[in-house]
Amino acid sequence: MNVLKLLLILCILILASVTDFRKREVPNIYIILIILTALIDFRASNMLGSVISVPFYFAQKDGKSMGGGDLKLAFALGFSLGLAKSLMTVIFGCIVFITAGAVCEIANGKKGKLFPFVPTLTAGYIITILMEVLA
């Protein structure tokens, strides 16, 4: 576990989360920076992690549920973290997404409101890293 790499990714994800929350977009610079962090402590096996983005590809095909930025970010995270950590990140991110979406829907009474995915993916990343550190 390379702490510098994990902290850099966290900082990039926080910036991407703020942008996604405000503008509903993920600038390519964040994707590029995460891919560049993959060069820190790079392992060829980490490239398998990019397959985690395949379900995102199909989810964003309709253009309503998920954007291309979410797809690119999932690819970059997978490439940088490897299959196991990126899978855990996505699973925890989805759990947070579903929970936050349900709470917002109940609180606001609005169905079908778009909710940014990157902040919940960032939460999933934090949970994954904390589980690794505390284990």
Automatic annotation (TrEMBL):
Gene3D superfamilies, sorted: 1.20.120.1220
Residues spanning the membrane: 29-59, 71-102, 114-134
Molecular-function GO terms, alphabetical: aspartic-type endopeptidase activity
Domain of life where this protein originates: Bacteria
InterPro entries (alphabetical): Prepilin_IV_endopep_pep
Occurrences of domain Prepilin type IV endopeptidase peptidase (ranges): 7-98
Any Pfam family hit: Peptidase_A24
Keyword Transmembrane tagged: yes
Record GO cellular component, one term: membrane
Keyword Transmembrane among UniProt keywords: yes
Organism: Qingrenia yutianensis
Name of this protein: Prepilin peptidase
Keywords carried by this UniProt record: Membrane, Transmembrane, Transmembrane helix
